[in-house]
Design brief:
164 residues; alpha+beta; 6-stranded antiparallel β-sheet; 6 helices; 31% helix; 26% strand; disordered N terminus
């Protein structure tokens, strides 16, 4: 309707109408901020396990650095639900075409779930180590233990120090 009125008035008025620039692309910035928040909430051990805690339940997996070092994971040995773990306890192992690696608990707690999808598709650890390739979920018995783990920035610095 407004466009018709502008056409009727003629092109003389058109230059006086300000051109609106397209809105800034906020979605990409929002996505970056969100992923940054997700990553900063993840904590890491010096043995390359990670844990993210939500509502007192921690999800545990291995870092991207660890899965790259292992190579193609072909088998996962995980604990039974109900297994009680102390911080640094061995709770399973990953086997790849070139190595085997033990898994260590980042915190004290009880295993509440294991990633059943890894039984049929252990390669999920390689394809999606921070999402679909998680290993176990566990209760967090002592939340103060989280403070002893590295945040993402500290972990990145740790990786660089061991690569040198």
């Amino acid at each position: 309707m407004a466009l018709r009125a502008l056409r009727r008035v003629g092109p003389g008025l058109a230059p006086r109408c300000p051109r609106l620039s397209p809105p800034p692309r906020v979605a990409a910035a929002r996505r970056l901020a969100t992923s940054s928040l997700v990553l900063s909430a993840r904590k890491f051990t010096d043995k390359h396990e990670w844990i993210s805690v939500e509502n007192g339940i921690g999800t545990v997996g291995i870092s991207n650095f660890a899965q790259e070092a292992l190579g193609d994971v072909v088998y996962c040995s995980l604990p039974e639900i109900g297994t009680k773990l102390s911080k640094h306890d061995e709770f399973g192992a990953l086997e790849s075409v070139k190595a085997a690696s033990e898994l260590y608990s980042p915190l004290s707690g009880e295993v509440t779930a294991i990633n059943d999808a890894l039984a049929d598709n252990p390669g999920l650890v390689n394809k999606s180590c921070y999402q679909d390739g998680w290993l176990i979920k566990m209760t967090v018995e002592n939340p103060a233990e989280l403070d002893e783990l590295m945040n993402e920035d500290a972990y990145e610095k740790y990786i660089k120090s061991i690569e040198d």
